[in-house]
Write the structure tokens for this entry.
Amino acid sequence: MGAFPIGLHQPPRYTGALPDAVDLVVIGGGVIGICTALFAARGGSKVLVLEKGRVAAEQSSRNWGWIRQQGRDAAEMPIMSEAQRLWESLSRETNEQIGLTQAGVTYFARSDSARQGYEDWLPNAVANGVKSRILTPAEIAAMYPGLTDTPPCALHTASDYRAEPWVAVPALAEIAVREGVQIIEHCAVRCLDLMAGKVAGVVTEKGRVAAPRVVLAGGAWSALFLRNHGVSLPQLSVRSQVAATEPLADVGQSAGSAKRLSFRRRADGGYTLAPRGKPELFVGPDAFRALPKFLAQLRLDPFGCMLRPAAPKGFPDAWSTRRRWSGDSLSPFERMRILDPKPVPARMAKLAQDFAAMFPSLGTVKLKATWAGMIDTMPDIVPVVDHTPIDGLIVGTGMSGHGFGIGPAMGRILADLAAGRHAGHDMTRFRFGRFTDGTPMVPGPDV
């Protein structure tokens, strides 16, 4: 099944000389960037993916592996439907078993307000033909054998999927390469090459590439890249921690989100675990700049994030990270090839204990790996997928923890936007200009 997450010190797999010119440069080799490149190539474009580190080495191999419609923002629902169809078709084109399994997703309710939130969200499912429903305690007990303290109800979507992200995204990259996409790892894009305010290409640490269109899919690094060009985007990144258990008895195939943790079955027989709630925000300059846009989110959940006084050196919003540089100087992207936040050992140990307490029949739960990732998030908890104020630059970022599941469809959309084609969905909710045109920040559903 491969290593999880993608190894920090493994040598690059994709190397080669820079081409002189291409139709499209994609910055970032995560799931969004790889899918953008794949669909752009299928549309007839000559595509180059430039990745400062390794394909899928950041959040694209560190996420939970859920491919869900449940709990999505209403504007994301039709896009997520497309993404699930694409996952089905793409999984048949890979040379790897990516663990794609339609086993459902379940959210446990512990309060009347949680149940009300589920019921308020259900019309989104109905409107998109998704058969989500509220489970009874008896149904929950049957779905999760041996579960202690069965909740009074749960929201369940049987049609949702899961997959192994550290296998799936590299497998998608292989498809892209077979279809003509060139990928170069360990090649950071320092900045855009602009002529008369329009994109003419990119300047990399290894030289210049001419291109009339660039898609920025840099995840947690996107706002920093844009700021160097004088473009402000209120994107922040929060740390989420994850653990993988050794193989365990089957206590539920459907991925679950409970009071203390979320869990999902893996193809190797173990479970992937993550603590519920309160991701960690390392406070830096961008946190202060973006604060006005995040006020609506803070009012809804003022204690929903744990604040840390400063990010580690080299992180996108660290106090010491440079905000301005030129194409002939070392960029922050070369100084930190892979964003590799560390998990807190005590929190990971408690995660294993909490899972064992939920399912006493498991006995002692042993962890085989722990890791953390930085999730790029926006004030309204939905991404930005749009043209930017720089002519020729399109951005797909701020996936807010949704990127892996929705990646194939957002990649297809970005490829079409770059080619001047219609996105195929109503993208109003995801436009770049919503942060500057007076649009109220309305956070997506907290479900």
Notes: Residues 24-435 form a domain with the FAD/NAD(P)-binding domain fold (CATH 3.50.50.60).
